[in-house]
Amino acid sequence: MSEQSVNETAKKESTSVTASPPVELDAELVLEPIPEQPQDPNKVAIEDRLPEEIDLADPELYFNRELSHLQFNARVLEQAMDENHPILNRLMFLCIFSSNMDEFFEIRVAGLKSQLEYSREKNGPDGMHPKKVLSLISEHAHKLVRRQYRILNDIIFPKLANENVKFIRRSVWNEKQAAWVKRYFRDNVLPIISPIGLDPAHPFPRLANKTFNFVVELEGRDAFGRENGLAIVPAPSSLPRLVKLPDDVCDGGDNLVFLSSIIHAHAGQLFPGMTVKGCFQFRLTRNADLEVDSDDIGVDLAGALRTELQSRHYGSSVRLEIADNCPDHIVDSLLKQFDLEQQDLYCIDGPVNLSRLMAVLELVDRPDLMYPPFSPGLPKKLASSGGLFEAIRQQDYLLMHPFESFSPVIDFLSEAAKDPSVVAIRQTLYRTGARSPIANALVEAARNGKEVTVVIELRARFDEAENLALASRLQDAGAIVVYGVVRHKTHAKMILIVRREGTNLTRYVHLGTGNYHAGNARLYTDYSFMTCNKDIGEDVHRVFQQLTGMSKELKVKKLLHAPFTLRDRLLEMIDKEAQNALKGEPSRIIIKVNSLTEQRLVQSLYKASQAGVKIDLIIRGICTLRPGIKGISSNIRVRSIIGRFLEHTRVYYFFNDRNPQVYLSSADGMDRNLNNRIEVAFPLQDYKQTRRVKKELEYYLSDNTQSWILQSDGSYQLSKPRKGEYRSAQRALLSELADNTRSS
């Protein structure tokens, strides 16, 4: 989740964070509309045009991708206002928002700035110029950040104080606390901190991305006669950003102090004989998008990536966060130093990085302030079978995490690693730890003499270093490791196990919508599918052939395979629903993905809506499609579900002449997924499983407590249930699937 620290200023430290009634913020939030491009006043509004006059590529029909992304972050932030969440979970949502915003600036804002810097401006389908987008991002991001700190200071901190979890500002330390903090600074901070005075012999230090720093204003001459007046104090990354005070210096409860308070209180000791006029924390965000030029990789992608990783921490500057009481002349100096403009400046009333507040969960043992734990469910036959291979031979299994256990996926590999009948294992890995249970099973399998081949996507953003370590560990164990296809990220989630049974070789397959990461499987909603279906096994084998070898496009029977067949088959299935609707036949489309931006997919949905197809889109994050436009998208409803778990399942449902087709996939409805990645979508062929997924989709469509409805102007409105009519998809799935041994 990243770093943190709190902004404590002299003008605010006269007030401590104590128990008090929370301040009310907006009772009803309507997330702001996405601004449109200024239109020609002589141009007829798109709602007033005849169908034959409408160009489905018209920019008026598309929301801006980056602004839609920012709106998703806003919906995450609003979870901190939801009193249905326990208070520590509400704090977690503030931390997640902070982490999301970091990535948004590191990647999306940085990308827009790069377009302008290198004169590579490219308007998206919405027609908005990158410079205009950056201006609007700044306007909306500043509003969100101000709201974030109001929620923290006016609601979260007071509510935690009411629960005897207190963040103690230095202005209210008692004598014992001050003495303890002084010893802590002397023993743990002073020996490793390195203040840097600024003068011609001490140029401004090169600060890494998102590191926590102080700018200190000094008065006086030092021993060498220098009196430049400014110094930089980088806070060592090895130091915790939150420190828990011992019980013997407090009056009960959990009492926490910020590293910023500790350094601020003793800044004078860093500059003996000088007068500290001010000490102000700040943090710089840099471009963190790795740019590995495929033409320059040669034969060593891993080597090129290792080289690029070294420079990630020192990309171009994109954002400056600083204490809101820092004098203007210092702020201006830092902006000039980092080549930033006023719109890149965020003056904050609190921690410069809330992400590090996640440490509270480790420092404070208060399970009563969090969601209670639950036991994921497990189908009865999987729980009682004599082994997974025997169980999967008898039937296919569909699991929905985290409501159902991820352990069968781990056991699938663990059993294969030990089973003398297993001769080969192939797997794709996108995000998983180098020491994870999945990695351990693959290492064991390789050491046991199995033919283990692993396709690792090294370029999984922000997991590159971990994936390089995983690749090295697997290679050391004797596994064959390949890195997929240079110009196409491998995002498909597949395991193929080949087992000798009598005189035959049988293929067992796992396909998923999410990553092979046991931790994420407790936080993300995802489907897992386990089968030994002959056609699917053959299809997965052929996809691996393409990934590990070299071949022309191979025909597959059941799977849809990006970048070859997935997009076009989706368009065909959408068009089929449209044709049925035009003939007066029943039609229906439900799509649940993380994001929807691919223009041809959006246009196909517009055409289906015009034909009369009822379309429900459950889009967690970015959505560039504009619903509710008369004559174009009036049959399309778009909702976003934000709750306790991160919605991550990708489902494509088509009514298909009363014979429903359901595909589960690793792919979102984005250009990168459908056209520039290795993805798979797999069909559910069992009627009971198809019916089950449809039922679970209906839970999301009837959700009226955690669903945000996208309006035609780009705003999102939170659903509001009537009294006694509360429906939550995630709660329903917990009740139905978790801690419940079922027959199938």
What is the fold's blueprint, element by element?
Layout: E1 30-31, H1 65-78, H2 87-117, H3 130-162, E2 165-167, H4 175-189, E3 196-197, E4 212-219, E5 230-234, E6 242-244, E7 254-258, H5 259-265, H6 267-270, E8 275-286, H7 301-312, E9 317-323, H8 328-337, E10 345-348, H9 360-363, E11 378-379, H10 380-384, H11 388-394, E12 397-401, H12 407-418, E13 422-429, H13 437-447, E14 451-456, H14 464-477, E15 480-482, E16 489-490, E17 494-501, E18 504-512, E19 524-531, H15 534-548, E20 560-562, H16 566-582, E21 588-593, H17 599-611, E22 614-619, E23 636-641, E24 646-647, E25 651-654, E26 661-665, H18 671-675, E27 677-683, H19 687-702, E28 707-710, E29 716-718, H20 729-737, E30 741-742
The fold-level CATH name of the largest domain is polyphosphate kinase like
- The number of domains: 4
Biggest sheet, in brief?
11 strands, mixed
CATH superfamily of the largest domain: Polyphosphate kinase middle domain
Kindly report how far apart the N and C termini lie: 37 Å
Hey, roughly how much beta strand do the residues contain?
Answer: 15-25%
Count of beta strands: 30
- What is the overall pLDDT average? 88
Output the CATH class name of the largest domain.
Alpha Beta
Spans of 5+ residues with little confidence (pLDDT < 50)?
A: 1-24
The proportion of residues forming helix, as a percent range, comes to: 25-40%
Tell me the number of helical segments per DSSP (H or I, 4 or more residues long).
Answer: 20
CATH architecture designation of the largest domain: 2-Layer Sandwich
Structural class by secondary-structure content: alpha/beta
Shape: globular
Q: What is the C-alpha radius of gyration, as a whole number of Å?
A: 28 Å
EC number: 2.7.4.1
Cofactor: Mg(2+)
Catalytic activity: [phosphate](n) + ATP = [phosphate](n+1) + ADP
Function: Catalyzes the reversible transfer of the terminal phosphate of ATP to form a long-chain polyphosphate (polyP).
